[in-house]
Design brief:
Helix content: 40-55%
Shape: globular
Number of domains: 2
Order of helices and strands: HHHHEEHEHEHEHHEHHEHHHH
Oligomer: single chain
Largest sheet: 7 strands, mixed
Low-confidence stretches: none
Length: about 375
């Protein structure tokens, strides 16, 4: 059985000790902690020195909060060095005395929720408990790191329908317990990242949220029990656009290490400008489909379109003016030099689709 819950303070020391004894984890750290990446951990020096300092830092951690203090240092450096300008909106509307269920669009495996927490921390709000898929805990040491960082698992796998339902019930009960204890939760609007640039809420995710409340309220009353705030993140540059393009073409074959490499690349590579918007808290009665649509409307209404989005949309329409979007033009021309026009088209589709979705959503309303 997969463990649903994150780790507790009592487990921190033993989990960290096991991590330092894990050959696969140590190999990953030695491979990736070098002069160009160690700066993100604020521990400069040779690979040997970096590893020693890394071990020293780990041995001083005794609680989840202390672990997150180190994560915050790393995240601050990541924002500073891989994001040109990080802007937020809607934080001022959040009540510091309310536990929120943030439902966000999903573009990066770990960074979407991390940027949410970076933003919350900047205004003195507690960080969230973050929902992750069971694919991210298939590699033991990665699952340990994520559970130390307040992540819990939503497992949709199982040998029988009963087992699948049991796993979803456990996740739903954990969310209920966490929110009712006054803590925040972050969950993606659907299973898996948006690889085509289209942000659509899956009603099945919303139904899962209600499982633990089914004896207390009808689904239509969900917003009376949970303070649901949609969240919209938009990246000017997607470091994994090429990989997503290959997926759209059906050319990618996934192995268990892909998620790890994608996490690392998404975190470490340049993202240009990034916008994170917190929408208004939802209220009223909704069916699952209606609630999904309300979340979609909020996400699309606050989604920030960058020049990369507009350039790609206009290019695919056959009417782009390169001088109008010099930065985006250079980005796509640099990509063009490394791939076929067909490959580039699938990358442009990812960037263009948010423009198309926003236009269609505005026309429907």
């Amino acid at each position: 059985m997969i463990r649903i819950e994150p780790y507790t303070d009592k487990e921190v020391k033993s989990v960290l000790k096991n991590l330092l004894d894990d050959k696969a984890f140590v190999k990953f750290i030695k491979t990736n902690l070098n002069s160009s990446t160690s700066k993100f951990l604020s521990i400069p020096g040779s690979s040997f020195l970096v590893m020693q300092l890394f071990k020293s830092k780990i041995k001083k951690i005794n609680s989840i909060d202390e672990f997150q203090d180190q994560v915050k240092i790393v995240l601050k450096n990541i924002v500073k060095q891989t994001i040109e300008n990080f802007e937020t909106s809607g934080l001022e509307s959040l009540d510091h005395n309310k536990p929120y269920l943030f439902i966000g669009n999903h573009r990066d495996i770990t960074l979407d929720s991390a940027l949410c927490n970076f933003s919350l921390d900047s205004v003195g709000l507690e960080t969230t408990y973050n929902a992750i898929g069971d694919n991210l805990v298939s590699v033991g040491w990665m699952g340990d790191l994520l559970r130390l960082n307040k992540s819990f698992v939503i497992s949709r796998s199982g040998d029988t329908k009963k087992e699948i339902y049991s796993n979803l019930l456990k996740a739903s009960e954990f969310i209920k317990k966490t929110l009712h204890s006054g803590k925040h939760v972050w969950i993606a609007q659907k299973q898996g990242r948006s690889k085509d640039g289209l942000d659509k809420t899956d009603p099945a995710v919303l139904k899962m949220l209600h499982i633990a409340l089914r004896k207390e309220c009808k689904f239509e009353e969900l917003t009376d029990y949970y303070n649901i705030v949609p969240q919209s993140v938009s990246y000017e540059i997607d470091p994994l656009a090429k990989e997503k393009g290959m997926h759209l073409q059906g050319e990618s074959t996934k192995n268990e290490n892909d998620d790890i490499s994608h996490i690392f690349k998404g975190v470490m590579k340049f993202k240009g400008n990034v916008n994170l918007s917190f929408g208004e808290q939802l209220s009223g009665n909704y069916t699952p489909d209606e609630l999904a649509q309300a979340i979609d409307n909020s996400i699309l209404n606050s989604y920030k379109l960058w020049d990369t989005n507009l350039y790609a949309y206009e290019f695919l329409q056959g009417e782009v003016d390169d001088s109008k979007y010099p930065k985006a033009s250079k980005y796509f021309n640099d990509l063009r030099a490394t791939m076929t026009n067909e490959d580039l088209k699938y990358i442009m589709i990812q960037y263009a689709n948010p423009v198309l979705a926003i236009k269609e959503n505005n026309n429907e309303r």
